[in-house]
Automatic annotation (TrEMBL):
It comes from Enorma massiliensis. GO terms for molecular function: nucleic acid binding. Residues 113-287 form the Integrase catalytic domain. PROSITE patterns: INTEGRASE. GO terms for biological process: DNA integration. This is Transposase. Belongs to the transposase IS21/IS408/IS1162 family. SUPFAM superfamilies: Ribonuclease H-like.
Length: 404
Protein backbone atom coordinates (compact mmCIF):
# COMPACT_ATOMS: atom_id res chain seq x y z
CA UNK A 1 0.00 0.00 0.00
CA UNK A 2 1.35 3.43 -0.98
CA UNK A 3 2.01 6.22 1.47
CA UNK A 4 -0.85 8.47 0.33
CA UNK A 5 -3.33 5.60 0.58
CA UNK A 6 -2.23 5.05 4.18
CA UNK A 7 -3.08 8.69 4.96
CA UNK A 8 -6.45 8.31 3.21
CA UNK A 9 -7.36 5.28 5.29
CA UNK A 10 -6.41 7.12 8.47
CA UNK A 11 -8.36 10.20 7.41
CA UNK A 12 -5.30 12.41 7.86
CA UNK A 13 -4.11 15.10 5.41
CA UNK A 14 -0.36 14.64 4.80
CA UNK A 15 2.37 17.27 4.80
CA UNK A 16 2.87 17.71 1.04
CA UNK A 17 6.20 19.54 1.43
CA UNK A 18 7.71 16.83 3.61
CA UNK A 19 6.57 14.02 1.32
CA UNK A 20 7.80 15.92 -1.72
CA UNK A 21 11.30 16.18 -0.26
CA UNK A 22 11.24 12.47 0.52
CA UNK A 23 10.38 11.44 -3.04
CA UNK A 24 12.14 14.20 -4.96
CA UNK A 25 8.89 15.95 -6.00
CA UNK A 26 7.47 19.47 -5.68
CA UNK A 27 4.76 19.87 -2.97
CA UNK A 28 2.20 20.90 -5.60
CA UNK A 29 2.80 17.66 -7.49
CA UNK A 30 2.15 15.68 -4.31
CA UNK A 31 -1.03 17.71 -3.71
CA UNK A 32 -2.20 16.90 -7.25
CA UNK A 33 -1.83 13.14 -6.58
CA UNK A 34 -3.76 13.60 -3.32
CA UNK A 35 -6.68 15.44 -4.95
CA UNK A 36 -6.98 12.87 -7.74
CA UNK A 37 -6.94 9.96 -5.30
CA UNK A 38 -3.83 8.57 -6.99
CA UNK A 39 -0.72 7.07 -5.48
CA UNK A 40 2.59 8.93 -5.58
CA UNK A 41 5.33 8.05 -8.06
CA UNK A 42 8.69 7.39 -6.44
CA UNK A 43 11.20 9.36 -8.53
CA UNK A 44 14.20 8.65 -6.35
CA UNK A 45 15.41 5.81 -8.55
CA UNK A 46 15.16 8.04 -11.60
CA UNK A 47 17.66 10.49 -10.15
CA UNK A 48 20.95 10.45 -12.05
CA UNK A 49 23.95 9.24 -10.08
CA UNK A 50 27.24 11.13 -10.10
CA UNK A 51 28.84 7.83 -11.13
CA UNK A 52 26.73 7.51 -14.31
CA UNK A 53 29.14 9.71 -16.25
CA UNK A 54 31.93 7.22 -15.56
CA UNK A 55 29.98 3.98 -15.94
CA UNK A 56 32.00 2.80 -18.98
CA UNK A 57 35.24 3.33 -17.04
CA UNK A 58 33.83 1.55 -13.99
CA UNK A 59 32.75 -1.47 -16.02
CA UNK A 60 36.07 -1.71 -17.89
CA UNK A 61 38.09 -1.49 -14.67
CA UNK A 62 35.83 -4.03 -12.95
CA UNK A 63 36.63 -6.53 -15.70
CA UNK A 64 40.38 -6.37 -14.94
CA UNK A 65 41.71 -9.36 -12.93
CA UNK A 66 42.69 -8.40 -9.38
CA UNK A 67 41.03 -4.97 -9.38
CA UNK A 68 38.71 -4.29 -6.44
CA UNK A 69 35.80 -1.87 -6.07
CA UNK A 70 37.89 0.04 -3.56
CA UNK A 71 40.62 0.44 -6.18
CA UNK A 72 38.15 1.67 -8.81
CA UNK A 73 36.61 4.20 -6.40
CA UNK A 74 40.02 5.57 -5.45
CA UNK A 75 41.00 5.76 -9.13
CA UNK A 76 37.89 7.84 -9.88
CA UNK A 77 38.55 10.17 -6.94
CA UNK A 78 42.12 10.65 -8.12
CA UNK A 79 41.31 11.25 -11.79
CA UNK A 80 38.17 13.36 -11.24
CA UNK A 81 38.70 15.46 -8.08
CA UNK A 82 36.19 18.11 -9.21
CA UNK A 83 33.32 15.68 -9.87
CA UNK A 84 32.16 15.68 -6.22
CA UNK A 85 31.81 11.89 -6.27
CA UNK A 86 30.05 10.24 -3.29
CA UNK A 87 31.85 8.08 -0.75
CA UNK A 88 32.79 4.41 -1.11
CA UNK A 89 29.53 3.12 0.44
CA UNK A 90 27.49 4.92 -2.21
CA UNK A 91 29.79 3.53 -4.90
CA UNK A 92 29.32 -0.09 -3.80
CA UNK A 93 25.53 0.48 -3.76
CA UNK A 94 25.72 1.94 -7.26
CA UNK A 95 27.62 -1.12 -8.51
CA UNK A 96 25.29 -3.54 -6.74
CA UNK A 97 22.12 -1.96 -8.18
CA UNK A 98 23.57 -2.09 -11.70
CA UNK A 99 25.06 -5.55 -11.48
CA UNK A 100 28.68 -4.40 -11.74
CA UNK A 101 30.95 -6.91 -10.01
CA UNK A 102 34.71 -7.39 -9.78
CA UNK A 103 36.26 -10.86 -10.21
CA UNK A 104 36.21 -12.68 -6.85
CA UNK A 105 39.50 -12.62 -4.96
CA UNK A 106 41.11 -15.79 -3.69
CA UNK A 107 40.10 -16.65 -0.13
CA UNK A 108 42.83 -15.51 2.30
CA UNK A 109 44.58 -18.03 4.50
CA UNK A 110 43.28 -17.67 8.08
CA UNK A 111 45.83 -16.70 10.71
CA UNK A 112 45.70 -15.14 14.19
CA UNK A 113 46.59 -11.51 14.84
CA UNK A 114 49.95 -10.76 16.41
CA UNK A 115 50.12 -7.30 17.93
CA UNK A 116 53.35 -5.48 18.71
CA UNK A 117 53.98 -2.45 20.95
CA UNK A 118 54.84 0.91 19.35
CA UNK A 119 58.33 1.15 17.88
CA UNK A 120 58.98 -2.60 18.12
CA UNK A 121 58.72 -3.94 14.59
CA UNK A 122 58.81 -3.13 10.89
CA UNK A 123 57.78 -5.83 8.41
CA UNK A 124 58.92 -5.54 4.79
CA UNK A 125 58.78 -7.47 1.55
CA UNK A 126 58.62 -7.08 -2.22
CA UNK A 127 55.56 -7.00 -4.45
CA UNK A 128 57.53 -8.38 -7.37
CA UNK A 129 57.18 -9.04 -11.08
CA UNK A 130 54.54 -6.35 -11.74
CA UNK A 131 53.73 -5.46 -15.33
CA UNK A 132 51.64 -2.48 -16.46
CA UNK A 133 51.08 -0.53 -19.68
CA UNK A 134 50.83 3.24 -19.77
CA UNK A 135 48.46 5.41 -21.84
CA UNK A 136 50.95 5.47 -24.74
CA UNK A 137 51.31 1.68 -24.88
CA UNK A 138 54.74 1.56 -23.20
CA UNK A 139 55.23 -1.55 -21.05
CA UNK A 140 56.71 -1.23 -17.54
CA UNK A 141 58.02 -4.22 -15.61
CA UNK A 142 58.85 -3.32 -12.02
CA UNK A 143 58.65 -4.14 -8.32
CA UNK A 144 57.27 -2.35 -5.27
CA UNK A 145 59.04 -2.41 -1.91
CA UNK A 146 56.38 -2.66 0.79
CA UNK A 147 56.90 -1.95 4.50
CA UNK A 148 54.58 -1.46 7.47
CA UNK A 149 55.11 -0.53 11.11
CA UNK A 150 53.57 -3.16 13.38
CA UNK A 151 51.74 -0.95 15.87
CA UNK A 152 50.35 1.88 13.74
CA UNK A 153 50.15 0.00 10.40
CA UNK A 154 51.85 2.98 8.73
CA UNK A 155 52.71 1.95 5.18
CA UNK A 156 55.57 2.73 2.86
CA UNK A 157 55.59 1.76 -0.85
CA UNK A 158 58.66 2.38 -3.06
CA UNK A 159 58.88 1.83 -6.81
CA UNK A 160 61.95 -0.13 -7.93
CA UNK A 161 63.00 -1.47 -11.32
CA UNK A 162 65.02 -4.32 -9.81
CA UNK A 163 65.30 -6.23 -6.49
CA UNK A 164 69.03 -6.26 -5.78
CA UNK A 165 70.66 -5.84 -2.38
CA UNK A 166 71.42 -2.24 -3.38
CA UNK A 167 67.72 -1.67 -4.03
CA UNK A 168 66.71 -3.24 -0.73
CA UNK A 169 69.10 -1.18 1.39
CA UNK A 170 68.17 2.02 -0.46
CA UNK A 171 64.46 1.33 0.11
CA UNK A 172 65.01 0.59 3.81
CA UNK A 173 66.97 3.81 4.28
CA UNK A 174 64.30 5.78 2.43
CA UNK A 175 61.66 4.22 4.71
CA UNK A 176 63.52 5.12 7.90
CA UNK A 177 64.03 8.70 6.71
CA UNK A 178 60.31 8.97 5.92
CA UNK A 179 59.32 7.60 9.35
CA UNK A 180 61.95 9.73 11.11
CA UNK A 181 63.50 6.81 13.01
CA UNK A 182 64.10 3.06 13.16
CA UNK A 183 62.21 0.32 15.05
CA UNK A 184 63.79 -2.24 17.36
CA UNK A 185 63.63 -4.88 14.64
CA UNK A 186 62.83 -5.31 10.95
CA UNK A 187 61.49 -8.67 9.81
CA UNK A 188 61.18 -10.33 6.40
CA UNK A 189 61.43 -13.75 4.75
CA UNK A 190 64.49 -15.33 3.10
CA UNK A 191 64.52 -12.90 0.17
CA UNK A 192 67.38 -13.43 -2.25
CA UNK A 193 68.89 -10.01 -1.54
CA UNK A 194 69.55 -11.07 2.06
CA UNK A 195 70.15 -14.82 1.95
CA UNK A 196 71.74 -17.39 -0.34
CA UNK A 197 71.79 -21.15 0.07
CA UNK A 198 74.98 -23.18 -0.22
CA UNK A 199 75.10 -26.91 0.40
CA UNK A 200 71.66 -26.80 1.98
CA UNK A 201 72.76 -24.12 4.43
CA UNK A 202 71.44 -20.58 4.66
CA UNK A 203 74.15 -17.94 4.20
CA UNK A 204 73.18 -14.37 5.07
CA UNK A 205 74.54 -11.16 3.54
CA UNK A 206 77.04 -9.61 5.95
CA UNK A 207 76.64 -6.25 4.20
CA UNK A 208 72.93 -6.09 5.05
CA UNK A 209 73.54 -7.00 8.70
CA UNK A 210 76.30 -4.38 8.99
CA UNK A 211 73.86 -1.85 7.56
CA UNK A 212 71.25 -2.85 10.17
CA UNK A 213 73.76 -2.53 13.00
CA UNK A 214 74.88 0.90 11.83
CA UNK A 215 71.26 2.07 11.41
CA UNK A 216 70.36 0.86 14.91
CA UNK A 217 67.90 -2.01 14.38
CA UNK A 218 67.98 -5.82 14.45
CA UNK A 219 67.39 -7.56 11.12
CA UNK A 220 65.42 -10.80 11.47
CA UNK A 221 64.32 -13.49 9.05
CA UNK A 222 61.11 -15.47 9.25
CA UNK A 223 60.11 -18.59 7.35
CA UNK A 224 58.88 -17.87 3.83
CA UNK A 225 55.09 -17.77 3.32
CA UNK A 226 54.33 -17.59 7.04
CA UNK A 227 51.39 -15.18 7.52
CA UNK A 228 51.50 -15.72 11.28
CA UNK A 229 54.79 -13.81 11.49
CA UNK A 230 54.47 -11.58 8.45
CA UNK A 231 50.71 -10.99 8.33
CA UNK A 232 50.74 -7.21 8.65
CA UNK A 233 53.03 -6.72 5.67
CA UNK A 234 51.13 -9.24 3.57
CA UNK A 235 48.06 -7.15 4.37
CA UNK A 236 49.88 -4.03 3.19
CA UNK A 237 50.75 -5.79 -0.08
CA UNK A 238 47.03 -6.05 -0.78
CA UNK A 239 46.91 -2.27 -0.97
CA UNK A 240 49.30 -2.43 -3.93
CA UNK A 241 46.63 -4.35 -5.87
CA UNK A 242 44.85 -1.01 -6.10
CA UNK A 243 47.57 -0.03 -8.54
CA UNK A 244 46.05 -2.33 -11.16
CA UNK A 245 43.19 0.16 -11.61
CA UNK A 246 45.72 2.55 -13.20
CA UNK A 247 46.67 0.12 -15.98
CA UNK A 248 46.60 2.02 -19.32
CA UNK A 249 45.75 5.21 -17.38
CA UNK A 250 49.14 6.64 -16.40
CA UNK A 251 51.86 8.32 -18.43
CA UNK A 252 55.48 7.25 -18.19
CA UNK A 253 57.48 5.98 -15.25
CA UNK A 254 56.86 9.13 -13.23
CA UNK A 255 53.12 8.66 -13.64
CA UNK A 256 53.50 5.17 -12.21
CA UNK A 257 55.56 6.45 -9.26
CA UNK A 258 52.95 9.18 -8.62
CA UNK A 259 50.15 6.58 -8.57
CA UNK A 260 52.05 4.48 -6.00
CA UNK A 261 52.55 7.59 -3.84
CA UNK A 262 48.80 8.33 -3.93
CA UNK A 263 47.98 4.76 -2.89
CA UNK A 264 50.44 5.06 0.02
CA UNK A 265 48.86 8.33 1.14
CA UNK A 266 45.33 6.88 1.06
CA UNK A 267 46.45 3.70 2.82
CA UNK A 268 47.75 5.78 5.72
CA UNK A 269 44.72 8.08 5.81
CA UNK A 270 41.86 5.55 5.84
CA UNK A 271 40.82 3.64 9.00
CA UNK A 272 42.52 0.27 9.46
CA UNK A 273 40.19 -2.73 9.67
CA UNK A 274 41.83 -4.04 12.86
CA UNK A 275 42.55 -0.87 14.83
CA UNK A 276 39.61 1.19 13.56
CA UNK A 277 41.90 4.22 13.26
CA UNK A 278 43.92 5.64 10.35
CA UNK A 279 47.61 4.59 10.50
CA UNK A 280 48.58 8.28 10.36
CA UNK A 281 46.83 8.85 13.69
CA UNK A 282 48.47 5.93 15.50
CA UNK A 283 51.83 6.82 13.94
CA UNK A 284 51.93 10.00 16.02
CA UNK A 285 52.21 7.74 19.09
CA UNK A 286 54.52 5.18 17.48
CA UNK A 287 56.95 7.82 16.24
CA UNK A 288 57.81 8.70 19.85
CA UNK A 289 59.10 5.13 20.34
CA UNK A 290 61.29 4.91 17.23
CA UNK A 291 65.06 5.03 17.71
CA UNK A 292 67.17 7.76 16.09
CA UNK A 293 68.62 6.79 12.71
CA UNK A 294 72.36 6.09 12.70
CA UNK A 295 74.84 8.34 10.88
CA UNK A 296 73.01 9.10 7.63
CA UNK A 297 76.15 9.81 5.59
CA UNK A 298 77.73 6.56 6.76
CA UNK A 299 74.57 4.62 5.86
CA UNK A 300 74.46 6.22 2.42
CA UNK A 301 78.12 5.34 1.97
CA UNK A 302 77.34 1.70 2.78
CA UNK A 303 74.87 1.71 -0.09
CA UNK A 304 77.20 3.38 -2.61
CA UNK A 305 79.53 6.29 -3.36
CA UNK A 306 77.81 9.46 -2.11
CA UNK A 307 78.16 13.10 -3.09
CA UNK A 308 76.08 16.17 -2.23
CA UNK A 309 75.43 18.46 -5.21
CA UNK A 310 73.42 21.59 -5.90
CA UNK A 311 71.26 21.06 -8.99
CA UNK A 312 71.94 23.56 -11.80
CA UNK A 313 69.46 24.83 -14.40
CA UNK A 314 70.46 21.98 -16.72
CA UNK A 315 68.85 19.56 -14.21
CA UNK A 316 72.00 17.40 -14.36
CA UNK A 317 74.14 15.96 -11.55
CA UNK A 318 77.47 14.16 -11.86
CA UNK A 319 78.33 10.59 -10.89
CA UNK A 320 80.55 7.81 -12.26
CA UNK A 321 82.17 10.25 -14.71
CA UNK A 322 78.86 11.12 -16.40
CA UNK A 323 75.87 13.45 -15.98
CA UNK A 324 72.37 12.34 -14.93
CA UNK A 325 69.04 14.15 -14.97
CA UNK A 326 66.77 14.97 -12.03
CA UNK A 327 63.27 16.50 -11.91
CA UNK A 328 62.82 20.20 -12.59
CA UNK A 329 61.65 20.75 -8.99
CA UNK A 330 65.21 19.98 -7.78
CA UNK A 331 66.80 23.00 -9.49
CA UNK A 332 68.69 25.12 -6.96
CA UNK A 333 68.41 22.47 -4.23
CA UNK A 334 71.04 20.17 -2.72
CA UNK A 335 70.60 16.49 -3.48
CA UNK A 336 72.45 13.32 -2.49
CA UNK A 337 73.81 11.41 -5.47
CA UNK A 338 74.62 7.74 -4.80
CA UNK A 339 76.53 5.62 -7.33
CA UNK A 340 75.52 2.03 -6.50
CA UNK A 341 77.83 -0.98 -6.87
CA UNK A 342 75.14 -2.70 -8.97
CA UNK A 343 75.39 -0.03 -11.68
CA UNK A 344 72.63 2.36 -10.67
CA UNK A 345 72.72 6.06 -9.86
CA UNK A 346 70.14 7.08 -7.25
CA UNK A 347 69.35 10.69 -6.37
CA UNK A 348 67.51 11.70 -3.19
CA UNK A 349 66.18 15.04 -1.95
CA UNK A 350 65.47 15.35 1.78
CA UNK A 351 65.57 11.56 2.05
CA UNK A 352 63.05 11.01 -0.77
CA UNK A 353 64.21 9.30 -3.95
CA UNK A 354 63.68 11.59 -6.96
CA UNK A 355 65.60 9.82 -9.74
CA UNK A 356 67.11 6.43 -10.58
CA UNK A 357 69.36 5.80 -13.59
CA UNK A 358 71.01 2.70 -15.02
CA UNK A 359 74.70 3.14 -15.91
CA UNK A 360 74.12 0.85 -18.92
CA UNK A 361 72.40 3.82 -20.60
CA UNK A 362 74.50 5.22 -23.49
CA UNK A 363 76.18 8.61 -23.71
CA UNK A 364 77.98 10.96 -21.30
CA UNK A 365 74.72 12.85 -20.61
CA UNK A 366 71.68 10.82 -19.57
CA UNK A 367 68.27 12.47 -19.39
CA UNK A 368 65.18 10.52 -18.33
CA UNK A 369 62.48 11.27 -20.89
CA UNK A 370 60.05 12.63 -18.29
CA UNK A 371 62.75 15.00 -16.98
CA UNK A 372 63.50 16.28 -20.49
CA UNK A 373 59.79 16.79 -21.19
CA UNK A 374 59.60 18.83 -17.96
CA UNK A 375 62.52 20.97 -19.15
CA UNK A 376 60.81 21.71 -22.49
CA UNK A 377 57.39 22.38 -21.00
CA UNK A 378 56.47 26.05 -21.15
CA UNK A 379 59.01 26.81 -23.88
CA UNK A 380 57.58 28.79 -26.79
CA UNK A 381 59.54 26.68 -29.30
CA UNK A 382 57.08 23.78 -29.20
CA UNK A 383 53.35 23.31 -28.96
CA UNK A 384 52.11 21.06 -26.18
CA UNK A 385 51.47 18.20 -28.62
CA UNK A 386 55.03 18.40 -29.97
CA UNK A 387 56.91 18.42 -26.65
CA UNK A 388 57.24 14.66 -26.14
CA UNK A 389 58.16 14.06 -29.78
CA UNK A 390 60.77 16.84 -29.63
CA UNK A 391 62.12 15.44 -26.35
CA UNK A 392 62.62 12.00 -27.89
CA UNK A 393 64.35 13.44 -30.94
CA UNK A 394 66.77 15.46 -28.80
CA UNK A 395 67.43 12.52 -26.49
CA UNK A 396 68.41 10.38 -29.48
CA UNK A 397 70.99 13.02 -30.40
CA UNK A 398 72.34 13.07 -26.84
CA UNK A 399 72.65 9.27 -26.86
CA UNK A 400 75.01 9.52 -29.83
CA UNK A 401 77.42 11.88 -28.07
CA UNK A 402 80.75 10.20 -27.58
CA UNK A 403 79.59 7.34 -29.78
CA UNK A 404 80.00 7.10 -33.54
Amino acid sequence: MGELNVYRQLGIKPNFTQIGKKYGLHRQTVAKYWRRGEEIEDRRRDKESAFDEFRDVIESKAAMPGVTKKAIHEFLLDRHPDAALPKYGAFTKYCRERGIECPPAAAPEPHPRFETPPGRQLQFDWKEGLRMVDANGEVFEFNVFSAVLGFSRSHRFVYSRTRTEDDLLACLLSTFVRFGGVPDEAITDNMAALVTFSGGRRVRSERAWRFAKEAGFELKLCRASTPQTKGKDESSNRFVNRLLAYDHDFEGEQGLIDAIARIEARSNAEPNETTGLPPAVLFMKEKEHLRPIGNLRVLQGMIGSVSVQKVPATMLVRAAGRQWSVPRSCIGKKVNVVAMPSGQVRVTLDGEEVAVHDTAAPGPIVYAEEHYVEALSGKSWFGDSDIREAARANLELLDRLGGE
